[in-house]
Amino acid sequence: MNAKVSDEFLKQLEETEREDPQREIPVIVTIKAGTNVDTLKQRGLRIQRLFENISAISGTLTAAGIKNLAQLDQVVLIEYDGPVWALSDQP
Length: 91
Fold this sequence. Notes:
This protein is an alpha+beta fold.
């Protein structure tokens, strides 16, 4: 696949596709400025949030849908949208 989906995330997608192909996966999709979000919806993206300050959208999609969406020229990057914790160097 291309650099729009990391190798690590791609492995997770393939596993999910084998176990439960209909499972919706939370993602953040970075897009090119001016992208018509209807194009993304037509590819199966269920939009949860449109970010105003950056060209990105959060939503859910199946593993096959993520692979399909990655083929669009308007899509820059697709990442898993999961919990993030800050690490501190303080004890």
